[in-house]
Structure formats: C-alpha cells, structure tokens
Amino acid sequence: MTTIATIGPKKYEFQDLVCLDFVLKTEEEKDISFLIEPHGGEDAAFTYKGNDGALKKFEVQVKGSEAPVTPKFVAECLLHFPEQRHENCLFERMIKDCNLCVVLVMSGRSTDKLLKYLPNGEWDLSPHKNNFTLKDAEALNLEFQSLIDGFGDTRLMKARKEHTQSIIENFNTKEVRDALQRLIIIDNESEKLVKENIHLSLRSKYHIPDDYFEEVIRKSTEYIKAAKESQEDVIAKISQYLKSVSSVSLRPSNYIQRGDEDNLKNLLTSEHSLLLSGKPRIGKSYTAMWIAASFQDQGYRVKRTDDIFEAFRFLEDPVNGPRLVVVDDPLGGSRLSNNPQQIWQEIKSKLSFVPSPQRKIIISQGQERLLEISGKSQLEDIRVAAKRWNDLSSYPNSFLEKFWKQSNERNYQSNCT
C-alpha cells in the first residue's frame, strides 16, 4: 500500500491554512476545542457542543495533491493508521463513534462516484442529509480489498495488512452504510480558495483590512505550528490574537437607514469621494459612518478624523491595500475652526486628486459653516472640485416610517420594563 502523505513545506502551508479556516468557522461554537495533529489522530480534530447538548466530533485529513479523488484514494485515506501503530485507523474510529464526522479536504476533484459525499454548497458542519445504500458500503469494502497487496514488507506494514484483512472480513455493511453519512469530502480546494475563505472571515468577524491580511495569516499560522508541538487547544490563542488586532466597526448601533444609502455608496464607489451636509443634528456623521462601515466590510482600512490634513496624509501614504477616511466637520461645528481658509483651500485643491480607486474620502460638514466660508446663500450653489454637497436635511418617506415604528417599539419596551 503506497503512502498517502504529501511531504514538503508546501504541503504543511496548505494544511495550516485549512486548519485556520476551520478555526475561524468554529471558534464561536459552544465549548469548542481544536487540536492540531493530535497524537493518534489526523491533521486536525475539533469538538463542540451542539444546540441539542450532544458533543460533536470531527477529524480532518488534508490532502494537497491535485490528482483526481477516486474511491480507491478515499479508501486509502480511511485506512490511515496512527504513527507506528497497526490498529485504530481512521475508518475504525468513524465506525466506533457515532458522533464523529470524518472530513477529507482534497485539492483534487472528485470523480462522479463520490459526488454524494460532497456537501451541497457551503458545508454547515452537519452529516449528510441524503441516504447511503448497502451498495455504497459494499463498494468501500471492495476498495479496501484492492489495497491489500499494496502494503510493504516491513514488520509494521505486515501488521497493518493483517489488521486491514480483519477489517474486511468483519465488515458490517449496515453499520458502514450508516457511518457513511458522517464521511464528508470537500474537494477542489486550493491555497487560493482557502485564503479567500479566511479573508472573508477576517473581514466580517474582525474587520481586518486587506493591507494587514498577510501578516495576520502569518501570525495565526505560527500559532497553529506551535500547537502541533504543544498539543494545546489552539482556539484561545488565535482568538485572543485576532481580537488584539481587530478593527472596531464604524457602523453605528441602532442606526435607522434613510433609504438612500445605496445611492450614496454607489456615488462614493464611482467618484471616490462623498460630500455630506445639511442642517444641524440631521445625522450626517452617522450616515457617513454607516457608509464607511460597508467599505470596511470589503477590506478597506478606515480612519475617522476631523483634521483634513491628516486625512489626506492617510490617503497619500504609499502602501498597498484600500483605504477610506471619514472627515467630520473639518471647518468646525458650532463655529469656524482655526485657519478655515487654509482648510477650505486644502479641500478644494486635493479633493479632485484622490490618488486612486483604492483611496476614498467622505467629508461630513454642517451647512452653516459651508455657507459662511463659501459666501454662498444656498448649499446647492457650493461646488468643490466640481462636486456638489449631498443635502441630508430632507428624509425619504421610508425613513420617517421606520423612525416612528422603531420609536414606538422602544417606548413599548421601556413601559414593559
């Protein structure tokens, strides 16, 4: 029987990335425990308590070969024995423990005979919902038989061959049929795809900007490598690290959408700058933060400031990765700030030179200061680098309906308490 191990640094890099992907997908599960290359196990093993209180168990085996994934190769994976041992292979553990799911993550594409073992879409950590047949179990036993002559002549391999022969002879077809519900094959996985999954998780959970992604990957996989040696649960250390480098979402809580946010986001996407104004306390800053948060979710490094000079320095910094800055009342709030003409000139001179589509700016400024500094009598007459200010003073009807509904709900909850 030929070895199924893939050696070399590249194999371990892919394996570490797959483990990190699973860590990010499971870290919020109740009583989660995650081990890397546990003694006597596979590349990873994790457990957690499900909603029904039952302990869910998973063993993950990662194969980076791009060769087609065949039934014979899957059988070979299931007959993977612990190091220097000739019993308790992965198949046996799957049969003995009805709470154990075996997950085979493959870079190769599965053949048609294995399609029923593939999840339908994104895997939700559940066993298969489709039924397996006695013929499926018998087919696996035939694959086991085809591997018998492939074992080597060493003492260990002879013992494994003898034990495998015993597995074949004592094969319980009905028992195996039921266990196949818990054999999950995730095929056609590549380093690029796994990194994309990790990227999405880091964006959505921790608001990690794109320009910091590779560093976070490097550090997180260092924890995974260390956990192989220590045999310690890796979840706590990775979660603690990610929380330490996470960005706080700018999205304001209890924000009631006006109804025109999509139009404003599209404007910022196409023109790379967005000018918001209106009457006092109309919600300009909240709207600016809400829009900025949607770009933060896309991997933008976002900064909020009232200093226009600091804002443009942030955008002009020659680093990779998308950036967005939100500038609140750079000309002042209740009164004009110091050096208002210099600030106004900076806005007018640099707004049209926002460096690239990877750089965006939102300026939120009350209309009183704009009218004062520009000498105009109406907001609609003010232009900056041929761009107009979006007046948020009037609300769409949809916003008023949402506002009154939410206000009534809050009043009801207050009265109840």
Topology (elements, then pairings):
Blueprint: H1 9-26, E1 30-36, E2 44-49, E3 55-63, H2 71-78, H3 90-96, E4 100-106, H4 134-147, H5 155-169, H6 173-179, E5 183-186, H7 191-206, H8 213-230, H9 235-245, H10 261-271, E6 273-277, H11 284-296, E7 301-305, H12 308-316, E8 323-328, H13 340-350, E9 359-364, H14 367-374, E10 383-384, E11 387-388, E12 390-391, H15 397-416
Parallel strand pairs: 3-4, 4-5, 6-9, 6-12, 7-8, 8-9
Antiparallel strand pairs: 1-2, 2-3, 10-11
Helix pairs in contact: 1-7, 1-8, 2-4, 4-6, 8-9
What's the quick description here?
Helix content is 45%, strand content 15%. With 417 residues, the protein is of the alpha/beta class.
Protein model, in words:
- It is a single chain.
- With 417 residues, this protein is α/β, with parallel strands linked by helices.
- The protein has two domains: 235 residues, Trna Endonuclease, Chain: A, domain 1 (3-Layer(aba) Sandwich); 139 residues, Rossmann fold (3-Layer(aba) Sandwich), CATH 3.40.50.300.
- A hairpin with a 5-residue loop joins β2 and β3.
- The longest helix is centred in the C-terminal third of the chain and has 20 residues.
- The N terminus is likely disordered.
